[in-house]
## 1
Amino acid sequence: FDRPAFKNVISHGIVLGSDGQKMSKSLRNYPDVSEVLDRDGSDAMRWFLMSSPILRGGNLIVTEQGIREGVRQVMLPLWNVYHFFALYANAANNGEGYSAKLKYDSQHVMDRFILGKTREMIEQVTAAMDSYDIWNACEYLRQYADALTNWYVRRSRERFFNEDTDAFDTLYTALVTVSKVAASLLPLSSEEIYRGLTGERSVHLTDWPEASAFADESDLLALMQTVREVCSAGSALRKEKKIRVRQPLQQLTVAIAPEQFAALGTAFGEKGAEYFATIVEDELNLREVTLVSADTVDPADYGISQQLKVNARAAGPRLGKQVQVAIKASKSGDWTVTEDGTVLVGVKALDGGLALEEGEYELVTVVDADAEGAEHTAAAVLPGGFLVLNIELTDELVAEGIARDTIRAIQQARKDADLNVADRINLSIAAPEETLAALRANEALVTGETLAVSLQLTEGPELSISVAKA
């Protein structure tokens, strides 16, 4: 506590109750500590405090929701991944199980991604801890937990189902390593995960992991981040057009920055563009993805343009009378975005323009209504590129969408019947004729996804599903 850096971090914030006032015993404007510890555990409270704004000189508002947010964002994801690994590793080899081992390299792109992410996480958390920057250490760990559960595990489920030993070893390595790094921030959860994985006495008796044990995958991580940004933008377009995720769409064109397009082969291997496209197809439920370099196409060819909207209420206090000039210039198209992402408005009118700050403007991507196929097009602009989504729904696509919705209901029926993930089933479905027609047209998809060895379809007033172990 004598170190000046640490003193500076903790000397400015104020702890507030859930009503925004200073915490007070008489007002009881904070959650009951005993209830929090009984319900969420001490790790949840510890994480809430260690990752709080007060460690950066901000105010801390103590609420139950804030405490549970740490559980939702970090503790549950890590525990769920551990549970996922244990489930599939123990079920491998017809129930005999698989004993995973530490593995620091792999040829599979997704393994390389998470191992490279693990190296990055060790480096980031180590640097943050060394400088007493506990808030950023927690943030890096949260980002890693997100990448582990929402990207690596979700993208690799089939490999675990097929008992891919490289996947088992890679996930084991990631979990063992993250439990060591998180040990001082989540001491009890890390202890439980580490001991369950290794059988050793305690994670708190192990050495801090060495980042150098993992390969440097910087190029791959940067390109995979672009993949995730494309998928996120595509999902946002689906949501905007109110098209559910299980409804397949025909085609997406993705233009990425030239330097990233050139790095595809280095990062993803010989078939880099194909692998990039395959991930996006799977994530966004698409029939086809066309990947191009942004310097070979013009957004205008697709009828795409951006409009700048100045938020007068946000920009007014800072810009004063010039806010009206900025609004007029934005409407006339007198604005630009610099290479570093700064938005300049009134470039011509004000001899160089005004720089707008975050929150003072909104960039809106629009499709020219007169462009060919505009009614079936949705678009978004990405850093260094853009994407164009074909949202036209043909009868064939609609039928597949119905089949995929039904598959979701069948999987829930399997779960309700307490079936093992590998169990084959006999499947009976009663449904209206429209649904039955869609299931007949996509029978191979339905039986393959649900492990059904037989499928019986009968007409009925509403969807009814019966599953039995084959």
## 2
Amino acid sequence: FIQQQAGQDDREAYSTLNMGAGFAIFVKADDAERTAQIARDCGIEAWVAGTVEAGEKQLLIEPLGVRFS
């Protein structure tokens, strides 16, 4: 609603608004799914949202084709 009312495209909205991602925890890749499962077992909605990789510093939201460098 806010994005529509402000006339923002996805890139602008993700750079200025809290788009509902909530709380992020960064863990080793080998521990990611186990960490998410522990959270779910405690009644907290959780999922593995992405990876941290060596290379250019950037955030990529693949489903929307949005990239921040």
## 3
Amino acid sequence: MTFVIGAACVDVLDRACVDECPVDCIFEGNRMAYIQPDECTQCGACEPACPVEAIYYIDDMPAGQEEFIAENARFFAETLPGRDAPLGHPGGASAVGPIGVDTVFVQQFQP
């Protein structure tokens, strides 16, 4: 995993990063967006596109937001509430569309 979306995205979901991503690896949950860690190519195009500066290179994640590293990976690896199976590696966000659910942590997160 190279880039991660943090707390500032919760309840914002601007889509600028989604539109900017050349490999289509940013997926929309209900309250925030998530980067598919295995599909991200480390190009960094999403980071400056984010109007709330919620995207960080993994090594630059601010203190206190480390849980978002796990949550970005968990969004794809575990079965989310209301879904039958993990999202996994769907091969692009545009083919799947908005997922409409979040990890339990993000569902309960209070900004």
## 4
Amino acid sequence: MKIVVTGANGFIGKNLCTMLAEQGYTDIVKVDRETTPAELAASLQVADFVFHLAGVNRPQTDIEFKEGNTDLTAFIIEALETAGKKTPLMLSSSTQAERDNAYGISKGKAEQLVKTYGEATGANYFIYRFPNVFGKWCRPNYNSFVATFCHNIVNDIELTIHDPAATVTLVYIDDVCNELIGLLKAGQSSGYRQVSPEYPTTVGEVANQLQAFKLSRDSLITENVGTGLTRALYSTYLSHFTPQQFSYTVPAYGDDRGVFCEMLKTRQAGQFSFFTAHPGITRGGHYHHSKNEKFLVIKGKALFKFEQISTRERYELTVTGEQFQVVETVPGWSHDITNIGDDELVVMLWANEIFDRKAPDTFASPL
């Protein structure tokens, strides 16, 4: 399948071409500002599908709206009609297509051209009035306010927000690309379509969430970045890092026993840390009423000892860094860990709650 992508070097275009290649579509003609009209016409003659993403939204004069949106669309349709292949055509439009301004009018006319092309030729056509699209490679101060906010927060530039309560609808670039690639499958119905999911929110809520990402490096408390809008915003925020910003230090506390270091905390699912112990050193010697911990020996040899604080039942377990065995602490059982090897012991630790110095749920009970 030969696929033509106009606006291939733009925000959506770069992401779409990347994901098309990942899914095995290798015959992609990338059309950009350097492509001549003759080259574009030639590629359209042999196209099996056209993603028309190119357009103008920030021109120096209003006439450029017509040239870059309406006239370019008319040129593409004329070339496709000349080819006589009923080539499917997707158009990137805008929610402003119904508004009475130069940009909206140019997009509305482009939509009508595409609709007429489909109805006259029987070719499939797909029109998307994209709301605010955001994600990696989105240009600050150009594509989306989300990109601008990410850039400013990452680089300690003050945000300018005129109305935090202003409502916005967002769609994430990965969802946009997956939707568009789905058009290549048979059985797709023509007409107006939209990307799912859409995320209704406000400008202020987006700003607050992005600022929370920045604060998390100091607090070590991560946001709930695994699903939905928060996941998408976090990915977008990270994409604005320079390589020099990829890393950061976390606090570590050392004494004659070894080192203890907290790595990551969550509000709802505890925290991750690790500790070391020199040969012969014992750590722990306490119990919890509710807290649970999971230990994973990464390096060395450890003896885990347990004692039920009421019945005094005891249990011992030896674990090495070659076993990758998770050892649980159980409420009401005192426990300690001793390095019984010749090398430094390194243990990864997860606790189901963030350590609270005012209420640590940790009570000394040496074994």
